[in-house]
Amino acid sequence: MSETEVEQTPEEKALSRIPDDTPVDLEGIVRDSQVQEVLDKLDRELIGLTPIKTRIREIAALLLIDRVRKGLGLMSGPPSLHMCFTGNPGTGKTTVAMRMAEILHRLGYVRKGHLAAVTRDDLVGQYIGHTAPKTKEVLKRAMGGVLFIDEAYYLYRSENERDYGQESIEILLQVMENQREDLVVILAGYRDRMQTFFQGNPGMSSRVAHHLDFPDYSAEELIAIAKLMLEEQQYRFSPEAEKVFHAYLLKRMQMPNFANARSVRNALDRARLRQANRLFAQHRNTLTKKDLVTIEAEDILASRVFMDVQPESDQKTDRK
Fold first, then answer.
1. In the Cβ-directed half-sphere of 57, how many Cα atoms lie within 13 Å?
2. Domain end: 191, 214, 237, which one?
3. Of the residues 168, 198, 214, which one is the last residue of a structural domain?
Protein backbone atom coordinates (compact mmCIF):
# COMPACT_ATOMS: atom_id res chain seq x y z
CA MET A 1 0.00 0.00 0.00
CA SER A 2 1.34 3.46 -0.89
CA GLU A 3 1.82 6.15 1.73
CA THR A 4 -1.14 8.12 0.36
CA GLU A 5 -3.59 5.23 0.57
CA VAL A 6 -5.69 4.69 3.68
CA GLU A 7 -6.80 1.22 4.59
CA GLN A 8 -10.58 0.84 4.51
CA THR A 9 -12.58 -0.80 7.25
CA PRO A 10 -14.68 -3.86 6.33
CA GLU A 11 -17.79 -1.69 6.50
CA GLU A 12 -16.28 0.88 4.12
CA LYS A 13 -15.23 -1.86 1.69
CA ALA A 14 -18.76 -3.26 1.73
CA LEU A 15 -20.29 0.15 1.08
CA SER A 16 -17.87 0.83 -1.79
CA ARG A 17 -19.17 -2.27 -3.57
CA ILE A 18 -22.79 -1.02 -3.61
CA PRO A 19 -23.85 -0.72 -7.29
CA ASP A 20 -24.77 2.69 -8.70
CA ASP A 21 -28.24 1.47 -9.59
CA THR A 22 -29.08 0.46 -6.00
CA PRO A 23 -32.66 1.66 -5.30
CA VAL A 24 -33.34 3.97 -2.38
CA ASP A 25 -36.66 4.02 -0.53
CA LEU A 26 -36.74 7.79 -0.08
CA GLU A 27 -40.45 7.79 0.72
CA GLY A 28 -39.88 5.31 3.52
CA ILE A 29 -36.99 7.35 4.91
CA VAL A 30 -39.13 10.49 4.93
CA ARG A 31 -41.95 8.59 6.63
CA ASP A 32 -39.69 7.09 9.28
CA SER A 33 -38.08 10.45 10.06
CA GLN A 34 -41.52 12.05 10.61
CA VAL A 35 -40.13 15.30 9.20
CA GLN A 36 -43.24 15.84 7.12
CA GLU A 37 -45.26 16.08 10.34
CA VAL A 38 -43.12 19.01 11.47
CA LEU A 39 -43.45 20.77 8.11
CA ASP A 40 -47.22 20.29 8.19
CA LYS A 41 -47.30 21.69 11.73
CA LEU A 42 -45.39 24.75 10.52
CA ASP A 43 -47.98 25.26 7.77
CA ARG A 44 -50.79 25.11 10.33
CA GLU A 45 -49.10 27.39 12.86
CA LEU A 46 -48.02 30.18 10.54
CA ILE A 47 -50.16 32.13 8.09
CA GLY A 48 -48.36 33.21 4.91
CA LEU A 49 -44.53 33.29 5.03
CA THR A 50 -44.38 31.21 1.83
CA PRO A 51 -40.71 32.09 1.08
CA ILE A 52 -39.68 31.05 4.60
CA LYS A 53 -41.62 27.77 4.51
CA THR A 54 -40.11 27.01 1.10
CA ARG A 55 -36.59 27.61 2.41
CA ILE A 56 -37.20 25.38 5.44
CA ARG A 57 -38.42 22.61 3.15
CA GLU A 58 -35.29 23.03 1.02
CA ILE A 59 -33.06 22.72 4.08
CA ALA A 60 -35.01 19.65 5.21
CA ALA A 61 -34.58 18.11 1.75
CA LEU A 62 -30.82 18.76 1.87
CA LEU A 63 -30.55 17.03 5.24
CA LEU A 64 -32.65 14.08 4.11
CA ILE A 65 -30.54 13.52 1.02
CA ASP A 66 -27.36 13.88 3.08
CA ARG A 67 -28.71 11.19 5.40
CA VAL A 68 -29.47 8.88 2.44
CA ARG A 69 -25.97 9.45 1.01
CA LYS A 70 -24.39 8.50 4.32
CA GLY A 71 -26.42 5.30 4.33
CA LEU A 72 -24.85 4.36 1.01
CA GLY A 73 -21.35 5.28 2.11
CA LEU A 74 -21.26 8.48 0.05
CA MET A 75 -19.34 10.71 2.39
CA SER A 76 -19.15 14.48 2.13
CA GLY A 77 -18.52 17.27 4.56
CA PRO A 78 -21.32 17.83 7.08
CA PRO A 79 -23.68 20.59 5.91
CA SER A 80 -23.24 23.91 7.67
CA LEU A 81 -26.42 24.55 9.62
CA HIS A 82 -25.90 27.81 11.51
CA MET A 83 -28.53 30.35 10.43
CA CYS A 84 -29.56 33.98 10.57
CA PHE A 85 -33.23 34.99 10.79
CA THR A 86 -33.92 38.64 10.00
CA GLY A 87 -37.17 40.58 10.08
CA ASN A 88 -39.39 42.76 12.21
CA PRO A 89 -40.85 41.58 15.53
CA GLY A 90 -43.80 39.22 15.44
CA THR A 91 -43.03 37.63 12.07
CA GLY A 92 -42.62 34.07 13.36
CA LYS A 93 -38.85 33.77 13.77
CA THR A 94 -38.99 31.99 17.13
CA THR A 95 -41.70 29.57 15.96
CA VAL A 96 -39.70 28.65 12.86
CA ALA A 97 -36.60 28.15 15.02
CA MET A 98 -38.54 25.72 17.23
CA ARG A 99 -39.67 23.69 14.22
CA MET A 100 -36.15 23.76 12.78
CA ALA A 101 -34.88 22.24 16.03
CA GLU A 102 -37.46 19.45 15.67
CA ILE A 103 -36.41 18.75 12.08
CA LEU A 104 -32.73 18.61 13.01
CA HIS A 105 -33.48 16.22 15.85
CA ARG A 106 -35.63 13.87 13.79
CA LEU A 107 -32.93 13.65 11.15
CA GLY A 108 -30.20 13.00 13.70
CA TYR A 109 -28.30 16.27 13.37
CA VAL A 110 -28.80 17.23 17.03
CA ARG A 111 -29.26 14.89 20.01
CA LYS A 112 -32.17 16.53 21.83
CA GLY A 113 -33.96 18.93 19.52
CA HIS A 114 -34.75 21.58 22.14
CA LEU A 115 -34.58 25.34 21.62
CA ALA A 116 -32.66 27.58 24.02
CA ALA A 117 -33.76 31.17 23.35
CA VAL A 118 -31.51 33.86 24.83
CA THR A 119 -30.53 37.52 24.52
CA ARG A 120 -27.39 39.49 25.33
CA ASP A 121 -28.32 39.63 29.02
CA ASP A 122 -28.07 35.82 29.23
CA LEU A 123 -24.59 35.76 27.67
CA VAL A 124 -22.69 38.90 28.66
CA GLY A 125 -21.61 39.81 32.18
CA GLN A 126 -21.25 43.23 33.72
CA TYR A 127 -17.78 42.89 35.12
CA ILE A 128 -14.45 41.19 34.37
CA GLY A 129 -14.59 37.41 34.61
CA HIS A 130 -18.38 37.25 34.50
CA THR A 131 -19.00 36.80 30.75
CA ALA A 132 -17.18 33.53 30.08
CA PRO A 133 -19.05 31.54 32.78
CA LYS A 134 -22.41 32.97 31.67
CA THR A 135 -21.80 32.16 28.00
CA LYS A 136 -20.49 28.68 28.75
CA GLU A 137 -23.48 27.92 30.96
CA VAL A 138 -25.87 28.91 28.16
CA LEU A 139 -23.92 26.78 25.68
CA LYS A 140 -24.02 23.83 28.06
CA ARG A 141 -27.79 24.18 28.32
CA ALA A 142 -28.17 24.48 24.53
CA MET A 143 -25.93 21.55 23.57
CA GLY A 144 -27.73 18.89 21.60
CA GLY A 145 -30.22 21.42 20.28
CA VAL A 146 -30.55 24.90 18.83
CA LEU A 147 -29.32 28.13 20.43
CA PHE A 148 -31.53 31.05 19.34
CA ILE A 149 -29.93 34.43 20.04
CA ASP A 150 -32.47 37.22 19.63
CA GLU A 151 -31.23 40.73 18.82
CA ALA A 152 -27.77 39.24 18.35
CA TYR A 153 -26.26 42.58 17.28
CA TYR A 154 -26.36 43.76 20.90
CA LEU A 155 -23.50 41.36 21.60
CA TYR A 156 -21.19 43.70 19.70
CA ARG A 157 -20.75 47.30 20.81
CA SER A 158 -17.77 48.75 19.04
CA GLU A 159 -18.29 52.17 20.61
CA ASN A 160 -17.71 50.81 24.13
CA GLU A 161 -14.17 49.52 24.59
CA ARG A 162 -15.05 48.25 28.09
CA ASP A 163 -17.94 46.12 26.84
CA TYR A 164 -17.56 42.37 27.37
CA GLY A 165 -19.71 41.22 24.44
CA GLN A 166 -16.68 40.48 22.27
CA GLU A 167 -15.56 37.84 24.76
CA SER A 168 -18.89 36.09 24.41
CA ILE A 169 -18.66 36.26 20.61
CA GLU A 170 -15.21 34.64 20.64
CA ILE A 171 -16.49 31.75 22.78
CA LEU A 172 -19.49 31.33 20.48
CA LEU A 173 -17.25 31.27 17.40
CA GLN A 174 -15.13 28.46 18.84
CA VAL A 175 -18.16 26.34 19.67
CA MET A 176 -19.85 27.04 16.33
CA GLU A 177 -16.76 25.71 14.58
CA ASN A 178 -15.60 22.91 16.84
CA GLN A 179 -18.93 21.54 18.07
CA ARG A 180 -21.17 22.20 15.09
CA GLU A 181 -22.25 18.56 15.06
CA ASP A 182 -23.85 19.01 18.48
CA LEU A 183 -25.18 22.56 18.34
CA VAL A 184 -26.84 24.79 15.76
CA VAL A 185 -26.85 28.54 16.36
CA ILE A 186 -29.55 30.82 14.96
CA LEU A 187 -28.91 34.57 15.15
CA ALA A 188 -31.96 36.83 14.88
CA GLY A 189 -32.80 40.52 14.64
CA TYR A 190 -33.51 43.44 12.35
CA ARG A 191 -32.00 42.98 8.90
CA ASP A 192 -29.99 46.22 8.72
CA ARG A 193 -28.55 45.78 12.21
CA MET A 194 -27.60 42.16 11.52
CA GLN A 195 -25.77 43.27 8.37
CA THR A 196 -23.79 45.78 10.42
CA PHE A 197 -23.11 43.09 13.02
CA PHE A 198 -21.70 40.71 10.39
CA GLN A 199 -19.54 43.47 8.89
CA GLY A 200 -17.96 43.97 12.29
CA ASN A 201 -17.64 40.22 12.90
CA PRO A 202 -16.50 38.50 9.69
CA GLY A 203 -15.74 35.32 11.62
CA MET A 204 -19.37 35.04 12.62
CA SER A 205 -20.56 35.82 9.10
CA SER A 206 -18.41 33.07 7.59
CA ARG A 207 -19.97 30.45 9.88
CA VAL A 208 -23.58 31.28 9.01
CA ALA A 209 -24.71 29.42 5.90
CA HIS A 210 -28.43 30.13 5.76
CA HIS A 211 -29.95 33.61 5.79
CA LEU A 212 -33.75 33.80 5.99
CA ASP A 213 -35.49 37.17 5.78
CA PHE A 214 -39.00 37.18 7.30
CA PRO A 215 -41.44 39.57 5.57
CA ASP A 216 -44.05 41.64 7.34
CA TYR A 217 -47.61 40.33 7.22
CA SER A 218 -50.31 41.98 5.11
CA ALA A 219 -53.52 43.17 6.77
CA GLU A 220 -55.39 40.21 5.27
CA GLU A 221 -52.83 37.78 6.69
CA LEU A 222 -53.08 39.47 10.09
CA ILE A 223 -56.87 39.06 10.04
CA ALA A 224 -56.38 35.34 9.37
CA ILE A 225 -53.87 35.18 12.23
CA ALA A 226 -56.30 36.96 14.55
CA LYS A 227 -59.12 34.54 13.71
CA LEU A 228 -56.80 31.60 14.33
CA MET A 229 -55.72 33.04 17.70
CA LEU A 230 -59.34 33.59 18.70
CA GLU A 231 -60.30 30.08 17.66
CA GLU A 232 -57.54 28.65 19.86
CA GLN A 233 -59.09 30.52 22.81
CA GLN A 234 -62.65 29.58 21.77
CA TYR A 235 -63.64 33.10 20.79
CA ARG A 236 -64.78 34.55 17.47
CA PHE A 237 -65.46 37.90 15.83
CA SER A 238 -68.97 39.00 15.03
CA PRO A 239 -69.23 39.95 11.31
CA GLU A 240 -69.15 43.64 12.20
CA ALA A 241 -66.24 43.17 14.63
CA GLU A 242 -64.14 41.54 11.91
CA LYS A 243 -64.66 44.59 9.68
CA VAL A 244 -63.75 46.93 12.53
CA PHE A 245 -60.66 44.91 13.40
CA HIS A 246 -59.52 45.18 9.77
CA ALA A 247 -59.87 48.95 10.04
CA TYR A 248 -57.98 48.82 13.35
CA LEU A 249 -55.10 46.97 11.68
CA LEU A 250 -54.84 49.45 8.81
CA LYS A 251 -54.46 52.27 11.34
CA ARG A 252 -52.21 50.37 13.74
CA MET A 253 -49.82 49.29 10.98
CA GLN A 254 -49.05 52.95 10.30
CA MET A 255 -48.14 53.67 13.91
CA PRO A 256 -44.75 53.23 15.61
CA ASN A 257 -43.72 49.99 17.30
CA PHE A 258 -46.04 47.78 15.27
CA ALA A 259 -45.01 44.17 15.86
CA ASN A 260 -47.05 42.11 13.39
CA ALA A 261 -48.57 39.00 15.03
CA ARG A 262 -47.40 40.17 18.46
CA SER A 263 -49.44 43.36 18.08
CA VAL A 264 -52.43 41.30 16.95
CA ARG A 265 -52.21 39.10 20.05
CA ASN A 266 -51.99 42.11 22.35
CA ALA A 267 -54.95 43.78 20.60
CA LEU A 268 -57.05 40.65 21.03
CA ASP A 269 -56.12 40.41 24.71
CA ARG A 270 -57.37 43.97 25.20
CA ALA A 271 -60.54 43.23 23.21
CA ARG A 272 -61.25 40.24 25.46
CA LEU A 273 -60.77 42.47 28.50
CA ARG A 274 -63.30 44.99 27.14
CA GLN A 275 -65.72 42.20 26.25
CA ALA A 276 -65.56 40.86 29.81
CA ASN A 277 -66.17 44.32 31.29
CA ARG A 278 -69.05 44.93 28.88
CA LEU A 279 -70.76 41.67 29.81
CA PHE A 280 -70.23 42.31 33.51
CA ALA A 281 -71.58 45.86 33.25
CA GLN A 282 -74.75 44.75 31.52
CA HIS A 283 -75.81 42.80 34.63
CA ARG A 284 -77.65 40.25 32.56
CA ASN A 285 -79.58 37.60 34.45
CA THR A 286 -78.75 35.14 31.73
CA LEU A 287 -75.77 35.11 29.45
CA THR A 288 -75.65 32.81 26.47
CA LYS A 289 -72.69 30.90 25.15
CA LYS A 290 -72.81 33.15 22.10
CA ASP A 291 -72.33 36.19 24.35
CA LEU A 292 -69.31 34.60 26.01
CA VAL A 293 -67.52 33.60 22.81
CA THR A 294 -68.23 36.65 20.60
CA ILE A 295 -66.03 39.71 20.29
CA GLU A 296 -68.25 42.59 19.19
CA ALA A 297 -67.35 45.73 17.25
CA GLU A 298 -67.61 47.92 20.35
CA ASP A 299 -64.90 45.84 22.06
CA ILE A 300 -62.49 46.98 19.36
CA LEU A 301 -63.78 50.50 18.70
CA ALA A 302 -62.90 51.42 22.30
CA SER A 303 -59.20 51.06 21.41
CA ARG A 304 -57.01 54.16 21.66
CA VAL A 305 -56.03 53.53 18.03
CA PHE A 306 -59.42 54.91 16.96
CA MET A 307 -58.83 57.93 19.18
CA ASP A 308 -55.57 58.67 17.35
CA VAL A 309 -53.66 57.99 20.56
CA GLN A 310 -50.47 55.96 20.25
CA PRO A 311 -51.05 52.51 21.79
CA GLU A 312 -48.66 50.86 24.19
CA SER A 313 -45.57 49.36 22.62
CA ASP A 314 -46.02 45.78 21.46
CA GLN A 315 -42.33 44.95 21.53
CA LYS A 316 -39.37 45.19 23.85
CA THR A 317 -37.76 48.57 24.29
CA ASP A 318 -34.41 48.74 22.54
CA ARG A 319 -31.49 48.40 24.91
CA LYS A 320 -29.38 51.50 25.17
1. 13
2. 214
3. 214
Domain CATH number, residue 225: 1.10.8.60
pLDDT digits (tens, 9 = 90+) for 276-301: 999 998 877 788 999 999 999 999 99
205 shares its domain with 224: no
For 170-213, the pLDDT digits (tens) are 999 999 999 988 999 999 999 999 999 999 899 999 999 999 99
Strand order in the sheet with 184-189: 115-118, 146-149, 184-189, 83-87, 210-214
Supply the pTM of this predicted model: 0.84
Same domain (yes/no): 60, 31: yes
3-state secondary structure 148-202: EECCHHHHCCCCCCCCCHHHHHHHHHHHHHHCCCCCEEEEEECHHHHHHHHHHCH
* Cβ count within 10 A of residue 304: 11
User: Is 8 within a domain?
Assistant: no
Range of the domain at 285: 219-306
For the chain, what percent of residues have pLDDT higher than 90? Answer: 67
